[in-house]
């Protein structure tokens, strides 16, 4: 475990208990009435889910940046999040948006996007074209899923369906239960394991694809690990919380200077830092004194977009 | 021995047959687009041949598990890409990936052989072009391959760095490693290679000792340039004539 992992693990360990106390009502376990049900049934699953989803997004972002050798890459590029969102939107559209069916539809959407990616990119004759084809395929899947999502919104049978779709898309952890944790946690863990296994191959990719292949990296195996890894982490995250953007982009950036900059050294600390970021952001949206709770997805994009612009400005100055 | 048997790749290589030996520096020469990098990639097992086959010590290269191939053949691409600003020590250690170990001894040896030991903790972005070229060669050496295949490793280097890198490669060849280089500078090939392959439009035009393979007739025929060699063997210079 490297230094950055230790720092973020410690911060997560501190932030989780604190986050349980914070909210519209500050819980004092000795005084607050119904403190135990509030903590155990409302805030605890929410905190665990924030950690799970943030960890998945952070690790997926780190792996994507390593794979594409580009600090501006984001797990969203693969079209898995839009695919999952489309699945959920279809569930809402046809009116089966229950707590169990909606995530399942989203997982089917994520799986569909993954299968389509593998089908298109897995058939490259010339391995040198693999990454470009893979990325383009992901972007096309993302825009197709996005268009179909918009179509579902515009054709929504009634105002209620439309509003529930739009609200869901904004991403939130409000009122999530242990059932959501049970669904997302094992899938995310499996995805994290796949991304972790890709670490050494991603290190080799630092030298470019031909050199990586000369070092024994199998492009097909690497692609499969990344499709499965990002598919499970991002897909299960979207399934239980909607679209939560920018975590996969920002977190690896913040963490990279604290590591030796090898992609494999970035995956675990990015998972921990992603967990911390989503957890803290969720606390912030809970305690902001607004009439309705600010949606987590919006909050993170509000932080993320200016950060991205700052990054571009800094890169321009460096160039 | 690293052999090709009548390999053909798209319209870039046409029926190339050759057998390269360990302990020698082999230079692959030819005009732009002649198929030099294609041949090198095929020898490295990175580009499948449409026809024919590549054999490493008698085994069909494409049948070898990628990691075994990677342990035997070190490949240095022309791009010199290092995507992340890792330290020199971590860059060189990437050469150990096929072995799945840290290989501290091999990494230290590789850095010593390329005079990079003092740079171990330096980020790659702080290196000069010549230092980076040495660090990238050290990455290949760290894998302790039996073959080193390098695509124009000397192209962007000044004279002293060219000679420095050639000295490292010569020491590798003397220790029994097969060194195969794509080289543009015919005088470098003439003076430093044991053997020269000349490619022209995907076909092998010459495959012999440098004095023979880079004869004035062949240079005229392949490059379309009238030239003449000056100096003594081992210290040749090429001058062109109008």
From TrEMBL, chain A:
The chain crosses the membrane at residues 46-64, 76-94, 100-119, 131-149, 155-174, 181-199, 222-255, 267-288, 294-313. GO terms for molecular function: transmembrane transporter activity. It is a multi-pass membrane protein. It is found in: Cell membrane. One of its GO terms (biological process) is siderophore-iron import into cell. PANTHER family: ABC TRANSPORTER PERMEASE PROTEIN MJ0876-RELATED (PTHR30472:SF25), FERRIC ENTEROBACTIN TRANSPORT SYSTEM PERMEASE PROTEIN (PTHR30472). The keyword Transport applies. Belongs to the binding-protein-dependent transport system permease family. FecCD subfamily. This is Iron ABC transporter permease. Keywords: Cell membrane, Membrane, Transmembrane, Transmembrane helix, Transport. It comes from Aurantiacibacter zhengii. The keyword Membrane applies.
TrEMBL record, chain B:
SUPFAM superfamilies: P-loop containing nucleoside triphosphate hydrolases. It holds the Pfam family ABC_tran. GO terms for molecular function: ATP binding; ATP hydrolysis activity. Residues 2-226 form the ABC transporter domain. Gene3D superfamilies: P-loop containing nucleotide triphosphate hydrolases (3.40.50.300). InterPro entries: AAA+_ATPase (IPR003593), ABC_transporter-like_ATP-bd (IPR003439), ABC_transporter-like_CS (IPR017871), P-loop_NTPase (IPR027417). Keywords: ATP-binding, Nucleotide-binding, Translocase, Transport. PANTHER family: HEMIN IMPORT ATP-BINDING PROTEIN HMUV. Part of the ABC transporter complex HmuTUV involved in hemin import. Responsible for energy coupling to the transport system. This is ABC transporter ATP-binding protein. The lineage of its organism: Bacteria, Pseudomonadati, Pseudomonadota, Alphaproteobacteria, Sphingomonadales.
